[in-house]
């Protein structure tokens, strides 16, 4: 069996479909007229060609694109054609009976360029394959349906200003989705729509280039260029797309700096210190960035001495500052020139230079109130020590620069002279001592002197208002006209200008200290030492300043009987030596006197003593014993005796301490008893009294004045330490109706006359004042009463004097008788 593909070419002209025979088919077709011995026929079930479909075609009905036919198909209707693969049944359909293939919708080559399908012929009744399946391709034929696009647009590019013609700026690229291998649908041509005459574009490559020279950024910095890409080789009917290219001219240093004005004028006060900003200068440079950085300098010498100029942090402005102190009285104006220069210069643009400019600057110095100026920056004065108060030390001087004739007032700041060793004359700045100085205590005195300027009127008023003061602390004796020197800072006017200066005063040395030994010397010498042996090197010190004043000479004991000798070493030290004969041993150490002399004016001397003990030494020279017990005097006490004495003393001390402790304890006990005095205590008890009839609880007969008592009754005398056995008879109640007042008076008289019953109105009044009282008893217990008309003893209270006048008025007046 063999198969044949029959192509329907009837639709080729109308539908654009085309069939191509494969090589085996063409070989078979060439043998159609008769067999040729030279050619062999190859049997195949299928003979294929490719099918083509024009994209974007849409008709009212499905479009026939080809037909499949097998040689097993006899036209009996028993053969069925099947189509599988990409788009089968949706995009492409086949007539099962005839094998006609149709496309059901328009296709886009840009979405899918070809479809791979699989065709097979089967038996309609049994679906048994009649031929093996074969693969074929349906290709979508391109048409010019896509315009060019710029996928990277819009573009931004930069090119230096002043570039030459033809300088490459950027390359633009367009993309056409059509098939570049079929026709001119994807053949692009580039043109400039907008941006002429500044830029051009290569038609084939799309490279944008400069078209004119010397484009100046300062004139126009940015350009917008429109580039078009057209397919079909740029011919009519082609599709086109465009994009924009923003071209920015980058800056180059092609412009020199330029001052906007030729003269700058500034002013500054004379008190402005170094570094004070005077003003700013800016030279204009239209360039940008580093191309506009500038450096400023002063050309003239007189300006560079007083002022300096530097560039600010931005590199654009020149900062004019003060370099050294200014003085209005010396110079009132400065004129100089300032130059501005670009720091970065491009050699390619030197022809557009020079890249610098010059301007004139005038600075006027303004007058300002200035504090007084001292003639020296610091003063160094000297004065000898031990001088009398008021000794001249030196003088400081200051001048008012604004008004040289203006007076100055001087004073010493208190914190710089806490000890008040100096004083200063407020009018002329003369410094004097306020007391004796001691160089050995303090060598330097650092004072701070304040100079304050005062106006003429203020100074005159101060002088007119000053009162003469007697010379006192810090005053110069006999200087009564000038007044007292000022040791401290006075109260100054807040508006006055003042300045300070350091004054260092050195205290000069005088020979006022005698030499002394450097330390106390207590040494020893062996009893076996050889004659002239060195015992000790002795050093001396002189607190006076180095020189002749501090040179010390030594003089020791002289004569043949001297136990030790002194040798002056001429270097501030001396050697203590044994004499030719050794010193006799003894218990007490030797005291060697030494005289110390200095070489100052006047010569001062002192005497010192060196203690030398004669000791027993071992063979190696170490001390064995300096005071052996055998050499103790017989009058000394033994160790046992000393212990006994100490024990006795300790025992006595213990007894004394015990005695003092017991005595103190006894005194404390007495103090407790005194605090518990019954007269100051309230004793509480639970016994209830028997009322007025209970007279057995008290016996106050001991308190009665025996001299003022009534005469004893006949019979045996009554005892005063016990209650009487018999009571005074109670007077009967008067007959008649009961009178309460009369009854109370009766009972009161009975109580007063009864010596065995205390008065119920007071139990703390004693009736006995003692036998030695000249005025007798003042108690009513032993005295008579005039109540009820009963007479009693009466004493002339008026005769006792004015101290008892109140008492006489209370008790001396007689009551009127009852009606």
From TrEMBL:
Keywords: Calcium, Cell adhesion, Cell membrane, Cleavage on pair of basic residues, Glycoprotein, Membrane, Metal-binding, Repeat, Signal, Transmembrane, Transmembrane helix. PROSITE patterns: CADHERIN_1 (PS00232), CADHERIN_2 (PS50268). Residues 774-784 have a biased composition (Low complexity). The keyword Zinc does not apply. Residues 458-481, 703-722, 774-800 are annotated as: Disordered. Residues 1-16 form the signal peptide. Its main location: membrane. GO terms for molecular function: beta-catenin binding; cadherin binding; calcium ion binding. The keyword Cell membrane applies. Coiled coil: none annotated. Cadherins are calcium-dependent cell adhesion proteins. They preferentially interact with themselves in a homophilic manner in connecting cells; cadherins may thus contribute to the sorting of heterogeneous cell types. Cadherin-24 mediate strong cell-cell adhesion. This is Cadherin-24. The lineage of its organism: Eukaryota, Metazoa, Chordata, Craniata, Vertebrata.
